[in-house]
Amino acid sequence: MPSGDDPATASDGTLRAHIDPELCVGSGICLATAPRHFEPTMDARSRARPDAPPADDRAQDAAALCPMEAIHFVRAREPTPRTAPPEARS
Amino acid sequence: MTDTDPGPTTGFPLPHRDGLGPLPEFTALRRDAPCARIRLPSGDPAWLVTRYADVRTVLGDPRFSRTRATRGTGPRMASVPTLPDSILAADPPEHTRLRKLIAPAFTARRAQAMRRDMARLVSGLLDALTAHDRPADLVPLFTRPLPLAVICDLLGTPRQDGDRLDAWCDTLRNLTAAPDAAVTAAVDEMTGYLAALVAAKRRHPADDVVSTLIAAHDDGERLTQEELISFCLVLLVGGYGTTADRLAGMVHLLLDEPGRYRRLCRAPDTIPRAAEELLRYAQTNVQANLRVATEDVELGGVTIAEGEAVMAVNSSANHDETVFEDPGRLDLDRAHNPHLSFGYGVHHCVGAQIARVQLQEALAGLVHRLPDLRAAAPPRWKTGLKTRAPRTLPVTW
Questions:
Q1: Which one of A20, A27, A43 would you mutate to disrupt binding with B, by most B Cβ within 10 Å of its Cβ?
Q2: d(CA B93, nearest CA chain A) in Å
């Protein structure tokens, strides 16, 4: 079975940004550098947007500029739509 | 000024007041006119932004451009252009290209690795201070030489030119104290000074930031000569003058109410939090680097039109009553303290982490070695600059 058909292995892993909340000091550099990837939190820090696209050059730039080195990239599965319900498949 | 809406104009610059305490003009503006019309020293109009949320928006939102406030035509702070090639004048992605060159040297990790050297510098300066006659002026003996040594060692530039750098740093922060010609002359002199340093460094590169920037210019064409010199200038002025002024201001605030200083002597482990509160409380900046709106933006109840200038003042944001409880009180225990003293967004102070460690070590050294430190006379204050700071800090012990 081609791996692409199985949501569990649909992607060999796109990179997604992640901010360590313990390290973030809320400089706002990442928010201004890569606004599609990061958003402010209620306590004036930053976090990765849950709906962020796969990490691109802008996200990589934000990581390079973070003075706290708080931005890391994790391999995550594409947010592939869940397997269609059986009735839709038939 | 647009001819459609003249509107009342708020006085700017603010009248000078000695000290670093709350500025009643900002308090009134936050309450009554959070986006107020002002006239800049150049004669151009601008919007003065004073509330925390609005200041963060201006500093963090790409619709407010530093490039348009410094290059080409448009509203200007002053009638003399200063450093159009510097990183402070750049917007992303150009800003990103420049900042990535130096960011690795300014991380919190690197700053922590410098802590022991800074403590040693502090100790050496305090050895000399304690051997000095009393009273003594802490500015030339401590609050200036420490940041001078730290930034010069980091950049790889000589430590012995402090007096010339002092004069240039103050002139570059001119608001009303010096004529335009003096500002232009200071920029020219400092540019010449740094060009000579860069030429010397090019012959003898080392493991320092100036060598890194020279390599970026020479090897990869990632940096023009003008950008290289402007970069060195901004790092030196920011690393030295700004930090020296901040440190002097902090020590003044601690000694101004001796209970504050005694408290840090009793509980030196609280210095990091206390330093953040001192950074928040001190109303150091009485203006801000100008931005220009790249499109119409609604802010603070007004529409800022495309092409209009905006000045968002971090000092005022740091005293916003909706963010900081009892903001006019210096509370060394303040827990919730998301101050904007290092700015916000892409231009967030690149030296912030080094400044933090340095200020902490300076205060730690003082309370450890001089628990009886006290003001011997009121400080004299700098006047007519973009930032407020003690010019002298007479102390005894």
A1: A27
A2: 8
DSSP labels for A50-78?
Answer: TTPPSP-HHHHHHHHH-TT--EEEEEE--
Taking an 8 Å Cβ-Cβ cutoff, which residues of chain B contact chain A? 56, 59-62, 92-93, 96, 99-100, 103, 106-109, 338, 342, 344-346, 348, 350, 352-353
Question: pLDDT, tens digit, for every residue of B172-227?
Answer: 888 888 888 898 999 999 999 999 999 999 999 999 999 999 999 988 778 999 99
Which backbone phi and psi does A28 adopt, to 5 degrees? Answer: 80, 0
The pLDDT averaged over each successive group of 10 residues in chain B (397 residues) is: 56 93 96 96 95 97 96 89 88 94 95 98 98 97 97 92 89 88 91 94 94 89 88 93 96 98 98 98 96 97 97 98 98 96 97 98 98 98 94 98
**Contacts of B219-227 spanning 24+ positions with Cβ under 8 A:** B222/B97, B222/B101, B223/B98, B223/B101, B224/B85, B226/B85, B227/B85, B227/B86, B227/B87, B227/B98
Residue ranges per domain, chain A? 29-77
Could you confirm whether domain A29-77 is CATH 3.40.50.2300?
A: no
Note the CATH number of domain B9-396. Answer: 1.10.630.10
